[in-house]
Amino acid sequence: MRRNLLRYSAFFTLGILVGAIAMTLLLGRDIEHLTYKTRVQQEELTEATQQLRELKASLEAARQKPCIRGIDVRIRLAGGLTEIEEQGVRIELEREVKERLKPLMERELATLNYWLIPGMINERVAEVEGKQFEMHVDMIIVAETLGVTVRAKFKELKAAL
Predict the structure, then answer these.
(1) Which one-letter DSSP state was computed for residue 161?
(2) What are the tens digits of pLDDT across the range 78-109?
(3) Which neighbouring-strand residues pair with 70?
(4) Main-chain phi, psi angles of 149, to 5 degrees
(5) H or E segment and range at residue 50
């Protein structure tokens, strides 16, 4: 009898151990799956939080009044210059016009007096590579990027008599 009792208790203990091992294997897989899902959801949450920050920033920027954020200058040259000279002159004149219009940067469009912009450039003389060019505004586009088309004429130097 005692022997049967020991045998039954050994089988019972073995059954508990086998059941515990099987349960551990099944639950371990579920825990690993849930851990993976949690990690994926944390990444999605991080991405959604970043998108929310970006949307809030863009909404805040949209609420601000529109300002001049950039200047785009187009130069039309009149005169007998070679193509290489023309490229160098065009770069220098664009830089000169941008420098003259720099005080308009970050100005609100609603408060900008666009009638005064041509006066900042018209009939101004810029010297490039020892030559003088007189500038005249042909067109202005007032937007967040201020667009200006300038015609530049080679100004003949009058010889002193």
Answers:
(1) -
(2) 777 777 788 888 888 999 999 999 999 888 88
(3) 145
(4) -110, 125
(5) helix 2-63
- Cβ contacts of 152 within 8 Å, gap of 6 or more: 75, 76, 77, 78, 89, 93, 126, 133, 134, 135, 136
Measured from the Cβ of residue 151, the count of other Cβ atoms closer than 10 Å reads 16
8-26 confidence digits (pLDDT tens): 888 889 999 999 888 888 8
Nearest to 48 by CA among 40, 82, 101, 120: 40
Mean pLDDT value of segment 117-127: 89
138 with 85: CB under 8 angstroms?
no
Assess contact for 92 and 128: CB atoms under 8 A. yes
Domain coordinates in residue numbering, the chain: 1-64, 70-155
> What's the mean per-residue pLDDT of the chain?
86
Mark 117-133 as b/e (b = at least 16 C-beta within 10 Å): bbeebeebebebeeeeb
- pTM to 2 decimal places: 0.57
> For position 158, what pLDDT does the model report?
55
